Model the fold of this input.
Amino acid sequence: MDGPSDEQTNNQLRKHVCRDVDHRSPSRSLDVLATVSDYTTLELEAVAKREDEDNSPNVKALVINNMSKGRPKAANYESDVRAILETAIEIYCVILLTENPFPTSVQEVDWVKKAWSLACQHHSTKLTHDGGILKLIMARSTHICGQFKTKACPIVATTFGFEMSADKGVQAKNHLLIGELKQDSAFIFHVRGSSLDEHTGLYTNPAIQQVINEVLFKNKSDDAIKWRKYYNPFPRVAFALALTAIKCAIDEWSSSSHEMIVFKEDDYSGVFGSHLTLLNKFSQAAGDLDLVKKLLEQVYNMGCIHAGITVNSTNDQKKAILTRAFLNAICDYQMADTDSD
Done:
């Protein structure tokens, strides 16, 4: 999936600019701001300028090569600035995948500024950012979600056996498969039984690891390898996003044939929240067994192996997720939820 359009990005930025530039509530009507892309960029530059005045006087001015009109591009900036920008984008993705891939407009701009600051520290320098820099980094919020969804689509079709065909028998098979996978989120299990009690291998369906591998562990220099300190153990938030992307890819077969669905926040942020909540509940239910952490350590290790990195896994990690204690803990929570309804 491509990054957000100028209009989508501008709408996100305007919500924050209303608060940051005019010092008013983010709920203020967006009609007070112009719809032209350049205007939004200038407003953001005003935010950056005011921040710089509040910082130390040793801040360097941002060096720009012939800034073209319209949508900002990394190529518009000097090579040293592009290096920092690349790092800032990677750090911003880390923040999204450890905090929330569907941030509010206020969170977006705050996290973008934080990512730029951390990137400058990483490169042992201090450069001011302008509106174009903020927009380039912010565009990754939609892009990273799109990556998970794009990678999930072919993996889901192959792993679960969906087929494109005008044949009624094949379409009927797809329809039955959809029902099986959606029932009690059966797609998250390695082996599906006839009921929830008979499913085994919680969170170990190979599609999950494959999606994660294709997004973050493609090679030895990919983000999850480069920023190991943030990705090991693998973030729960990123894991829940992978599950959400798989759910979206499954939904594309709901008509018994494949129809593309846009991975929109309005439709899937609630699904993401549900998966994250269940992960947290399961972690609490497991108690001292710390099985969710072991699951996520295993996910990271398997990702490293996919990327070509040698990993020494312990037997404890290999068998962690298949333990009956974890499934019993889940059953306990399910019973508690039922009793409270």
Q: What stands out?
A: The first helix runs from residue 6 to 20. Residues 1-45, 316-323 have pLDDT under 50 and may be disordered.
